[in-house]
Amino acid sequence: MRKKTVALYLSYAACLCLLLGCMTTAPYQAMSDAKQALAGAQAYLRQQNNPAAKDVQDYQQAESALNAAEQAMSRGQHSQARALIDQSRQHSQAILKRRQSPSKSNVQFRY
């Protein structure tokens, strides 16, 4: 009976180590996704003759957050990097969502 208890605790410890290891790995895929979202937002802004101030502000915040995330990753602060990556992705996606939604000035009514 005692050997089963020890084996059970060892298996729990191994699972815990695996789980913690997954939580502390560097968020390389998330960084790549955020960079792609930022590149898409940048391409959209370059197409605009006079981009909206909110789009420019969101782009600057996304770029700043992504740069800070890269610095956090280089220092090994992966949880902080994840938060900054999420922040960058949210700002980039906000630009792209506004691009996809029709503005009120483009709506035409036909009677």
What report would you give on this structure?
By secondary structure, the chain is mainly α. The chain has a domain at 26-100. The protein has four helices and no strands. The chain has helices spanning 2-23, 28-47, 53-74, 78-100. α2 (28-47) runs antiparallel to α3, α2 (28-47) runs parallel beside α4 and α3 (53-74) runs antiparallel to α4.
Topology:
Blueprint: H1 2-23, H2 28-47, H3 53-74, H4 78-100
DSSP strand tally: 0
Q: What is the mean predicted local confidence, pLDDT?
A: 83
Segments where pLDDT lies below 50 for 5+ residues?
none
Structural class assignment: mainly alpha
State the share of residues found in helices, binned by percent: over 70%
Order of helical and strand elements: HHHH
Count of runs of 4 or more consecutive helical residues = 4
Give the termini separation.
Answer: 83 Å
Using only C-alpha atoms, the radius of gyration works out to 22 Å
| Inertia-based shape | elongated
The major sheet is characterized as:
none
> Strand portion, in percent?
under 5%
